[in-house]
Amino acid sequence: MIDKIKVINFLQDFGCARLEHLQKLFNAEDNNFKDILNSNLVSKKNDIFVHNTRKIDDAMLVALDILCKYKNRLYKYYLGYEPIFITFITKENLLYHIIIANEENSKGIVKLVNSYPLSIPKADKLILAFPDSTDLENIDCKIPFVYTTYPKLEIINNQ
């Protein structure tokens, strides 16, 4: 049985999550998480659960998609601050930052990544998610990174 307070706290921290994110991150593939809707702290829009103090954040949903892809390697994960949406540590003790760009801030994200380590906390690897691959050629980062496009999460570059 999953502690519904943990799920509500997760949604309070991260703002929103798809049903599949909750199922994967809480190891509850058969749970539909309807019991957390009774609390009046969480609402549901289609397959997205949203804490009532927050709104649906498409970039966070992309970050959670990526986090779920690393689920089998996760040790711990933490909410980051934009543009680093999530920081996580793997079982191999590697620190990753998930950085999400959108149409409006992609050029700024490229500058931020290129100025590493001055502008971003230290990590072993970055996961960069952009809406398309046009900014890839402008990235010159000293730290290894995975470059992916969303919403399909197709990996374009894996250093």
State the gist of this model.
By secondary structure, the protein is α+β, with helices and mostly antiparallel strands. The chain has two domains: 4-51; 58-158, Trna Endonuclease, Chain: A, domain 1 (3-Layer(aba) Sandwich), CATH 3.40.1350. The protein has helices spanning 4-14, 19-25, 58-69, 106-114, and strands at 16-18, 42-45, 48-51, 74-79, 84-90, 95-100, 125-130, 145-149, 154-158.
Written description of the protein model:
- The protein is α+β, with helices and mostly antiparallel strands and 159 residues long.
- It has four helices and nine strands.
- A six-stranded mixed β-sheet has the order 4-5-6-7-8-9, with helices on one face.
- A hairpin with a 2-residue loop joins strand 2 and strand 3.
- It is globular and about 50 Å long.
- The termini are far apart.
Shape label: globular
Alpha plus pi helix count: 4
In the predicted model, the low-confidence regions spanning at least 5 consecutive residues are none
Strand order of the largest sheet: 4-5-6-7-8-9
Task: List strands and helices in order, with pairings.
Elements: H1 4-14, E1 16-18, H2 19-25, E2 42-45, E3 48-51, H3 58-69, E4 74-79, E5 84-90, E6 95-100, H4 106-114, E7 125-130, E8 145-149, E9 154-158
Parallel strand pairs: 6-7, 7-8
Antiparallel strand pairs: 1-3, 2-3, 4-5, 5-6, 8-9
